Amino acid sequence: MPEVGLFIPCYVDQSYPQVGLAAVRLLQRHGVKLHYPRDQTCCGQPMANSGCDEETRPLAERFLRIFGRYEHVVAPSGSCVSMVRNHYARFLEGKPGFDHLRRNTFELCEYLVDVLGVERAGGRFPHRVGLHQSCHGLRELRLAQGSERVVAPFDKVRQLLASLDGITLVDLTRQDECCGFGGTFAVNEEAVSCMMGRDRIADHERAGAEVITGTDASCLMHLEGLIRRDRRPVKVMHVAELLAGAEG
Amino acid sequence: MDSRRAILEALRRAGAPAVPAPPHPAPIRYADPERQFAEALVAVGGRFFRAPDAAGLSAQLAGLEPFASARRMVSLVPGVGRSDLDLSQAADPHALEGLDYAVLPGELGVAENGAVWVAGDRLPLRGLFVVPQHLAIVVPAGALVHTMQDAYARISFSGRGFGVFVSGPSKTADIEQALVIGAHGARSCAVGMVG
Amino acid sequence: MAQAGHPEAAARFAADDARAHWHDQALWFVRLKRDRQARALPEWEALRACAEKIKAHTASRLADYLEEFERNATAAGAVVHWARDAEEHNRIVHGILAARGVTRLVKSKSMLTEECELNPYLEARGIEVVDTDLGERIVQLAHERPSHIVLPAIHKKKEEIGVLFHEQLGTAAGASDPAYLTEAARGHLREKFLAAQAGLTGVNFAVAETGGVVVCTNEGNADMGTSLPPIHIACMGVEKLVPRLADLGVFTRLLARSATGQPVTTYTSHFHGPMAGGELHVVVVDNGRSALLAAPPHRRALSCIRCGACMNTCPVFRRSGGYSYGAVIPGPIGSILSPARDPARHATLPFASSLCGSCSDVCPVRIDLHHQLLAWRGELVAQGRLPAGKRLAMKLASFVFRHPALYRLGGRVGRFLLRHLPRALLYGRWNAWGRQRELPPAPKKSFRELYGRDDG
C-alpha cells in the first residue's frame, strides 16, 4: 500500500479539524499508510492569488522540502492541490524532486478514484445532497467534465457520492457556477462575492438539497457563512465528512 | 520612419515563437445533410422548400404571403418570380430601395447552419441580398456541403470579388435578448432547393 | 496606486439586487445557447485547439502575413493604410472622408473605433456618425458606451429603450415591445443608410492569402452600409489576420456559436476590393498590439476574436455589469487588455475575478484567461500597485507560515479570540468578510492538536 503524506491546508487545520480527521479515516479505511508532517503550514495560495510572488516562493520551497519525500501527497482541498500541481512551476521548476511532487499530489476524491481505484465509497447517507463543484478542482484538476467543455461526461466526486446507499443527488440549474469565494476575492469584492454565494445556495435550495457538499472547505466556509447569517435550513458538509460518516 | 515600416518592424521584433500552421479537424458528417440543412434553416428563422424544378418552386413560393403580395420584385433566377426592375439599367444601388422581394441564385448550401453562399459576381448590384424587404435564394439540390470548412474548400476569390453567406432573415436580439426578425435586411428568407 | 475601481463600481451595481439578477439571467441565457451550439459539434474541442494554433502561428509571422494581405488587397483594388496609434487611425479615417466631402457616415459595430474614440473625433470635425447596430444605436442615442462587446445595450431594460426612442425617434409613449422598437429603428436607420455618403465597418477576419476582409453581423447593418454608399472604410487591428481562406472555416464555426449561441451569423460578408465605381479603404492599426505581442505572458490575449463568451460566462461580469470595469473592453478579456494599456488606471481589474476559470474553458481560441489574470496580479504587485495594507498583510502571513511555532501560536490565539471577543468587536467595520457572512468556526483544538499519532 502506498505511503501518503497528508497535506491538511492551514484553514482546515485551524477551522475544520473534523474535515482533516474524516480524510484520515477515509484514507485509512482504504488501507493507506499516512504520514502527517508537523512542520506543514500553508501552500502559499493566498499570497500567490494576490500576486505576491516574493511572499509565495519561500512557502513553495518549504512545501517541497516537507512533502517531496512522499510517494504520494493527498489533501482534502482541490484548490490547494491545484496550487501545487499547476502554479508551483514558476517557483520550483527544475528543483530536485519538484517533478515528482507535482505529479503525485492529489485531491482526496481524485486519489480514491484514480490511484486507489475505488468504485464504491461504501456506506449509507439517506439525504438529498447538492454537490458544489469547486472551481479549481473542476477546471484545474479536471475532477469533472465541466459544463463548458464538449467531452465525454465524467465526475469523480459525484461518482463516489452516488455510490452511497440511500443518497439522492439533486440536479442544479447551474451545475458548476462559482460560489464566489475566490480567496481574497471574497473580501476584495465582497458585494459580488456574497451575491454569487447566495445564488449558489438558492440553486441548491430550489433543487431540494438538505446538504451542500464539496471538495473544498473554503467554498463551504463562504457558503456556510451566508447560510448561518441568513438562517437558512440547508447544511454544509465537506465531502470527506460525508463519505467517512456514511460508513455505519 | 513611416507607420507601415514601424508597425511591421515592431511585430518582427516582438519575437513570437514559431508555431506551425495546424491541420484542421475533421468536421462532422450528417447522415442526411439536406434534412439537417432544412432544420438549421428553420431554426435561424428561414423557410425551406424542395422542388423538382423552377416551376415547382414558383408554385410553392406563391403560397408565401410576402412573395404573393410583393408589388415590386426582381428575380435573377429564370422561371422563379418576376422582374419589375431592369437591373441592367440600374447603376445606383439606391434603386434597390422600395423592392419588396428579390429572388437570387445561391451557389452552395451549408448543412450545419442553414447558410447559403451568394456570389457577388452573380449580383448586378451588391446590395440585392440585403436592401429588398424579403428574399428567396435558389440553390441547386446537389450543391450542399456539411460544414463551413467544406464550404470554404469550394470557394475561391481571384482578385476583386464579393461574396456572402446568408443564414436566414436579418435579425437582432439587442433589446433584452428578445429575438426580432427583420432588423435591417430581409424580413424573411426562403431557400429553395431545386433539382 | 489603485484608485476607486471595480469593487466600488461593482458594489453599486450589485446594490440593485433585482436588476443585477436580471442582468445575470440575460447573459446566462446566452451562455446556455452557446452550450447547446457547442455540444452540437463533436469536434468542438478540436476546433478550439485548432483555432488557438492558427492564431499562434499567425502571430509568429504576423508581419509577413500583413505584407501578403496588403499585396493581395491592393491587387483587388483596396487601399491599405497603416496607423501606429488611435490618433493616426482617426486622422486617416477623417482624411479619407474629408477629401471626398463626406459629412454623413454610417458605421457598423467596431470595438476598434470605440478603442480609438473615433466618433467624437469625427463629430468634432463636422461629420455625422451614425452607429447602425441596434444595440450601438441605442447607446449612442443615450450618450453611453457599449457595456458589452457583442450585446452593447444588454444593461438597458426595454422600458428604458422605449422612453429613449419616444424622445428621440418619436415612437409611441409607453411603448416597449422589442419588435415595435426594432421596427422603428429599422425605419429610422434605413433613412440614414440611404442618405450616407460612406460606410465604416470593423473587421472580424482578414485573409492574407486573398487580401479580403470579412465582416459578420446578424442585422445586415454592415451590408447596408457597404452596399448603398460607394465608399467603404474597414478598420482592423493587426491581429485580425488569418493566413488562408480555409482558416475561415474554423473561425466562422466558432465565432457565432461562442458569441450568441447561433450556428453562424446571419451575414458573413467577404470583401475583396470595392463595389463597382466605389472605394475600399482598409486601415490597419497597431495601437499597442505589437507591444502586447512582445510581452510573452500576455501574448495570447492577442488571439481574442471578440466573441464576448468570457463575459457571458463570467459570474462577476454578470453581477457587476460592463461599466463597472471602466474600460472599452470589459470582462475577463478586458481585464487583461486594459492593464497593458494603463496599469495605474486599471489596477483593480485583474482582481475582479474569483479565478473560477470558466472564461478559459469557454474561450473559442483557448486563451488562458484566468491564468493571465493571475499573471497580471503578479505584475501589478511588482509595480507596487497593491495597496500597502494588503501587501503588508501578505508579508506578515508569509512570515508566520514559514515559522510553524508562530503559526501554531497564532492559530491558538486567533481561535481563542474568535470564541471570546464580543460580537460587536468581531463584526466591526474592519471586517469585510463579516458584513454579510458569519466568520468560520473557531474550534478549541486544531487538526494537528487532535491528530496525535504519527510525525511522518
UniProtKB/TrEMBL annotation, chain A:
InterPro entries: Cys_rich_dom (IPR004017). The lineage of its organism: Bacteria, Pseudomonadati, Myxococcota, Myxococcia, Myxococcales. Residues 4-84, 129-223 form the Cysteine-rich domain. It comes from Anaeromyxobacter paludicola. This is Fe-S oxidoreductase. It holds the Pfam family CCG.
TrEMBL record, chain B:
Residues 100-188 form the LUD domain. It holds the Pfam family LUD_dom. Signal peptide: none annotated. PANTHER family: LACTATE UTILIZATION PROTEIN C. This is LUD domain-containing protein. It comes from Anaeromyxobacter paludicola.
UniProtKB/TrEMBL annotation, chain C:
Residues 295-322 form the 4Fe-4S ferredoxin-type domain. Keywords: 4Fe-4S, Electron transport, Iron, Iron-sulfur, Metal-binding, Repeat, Transport. InterPro entries: 4Fe4S_Fe-S-bd (IPR017896), 4Fe4S_Fe_S_CS (IPR017900), FTHF_cligase-like_sf (IPR024185), Helical_ferredxn (IPR009051), LUD_dom (IPR003741), LutB/LldF (IPR004452), LutB_C (IPR024569), NagB/RpiA_transferase-like (IPR037171). Transmembrane segments: none annotated. Coiled coil: none annotated. It comes from the Bacteria. This is 4Fe-4S ferredoxin.
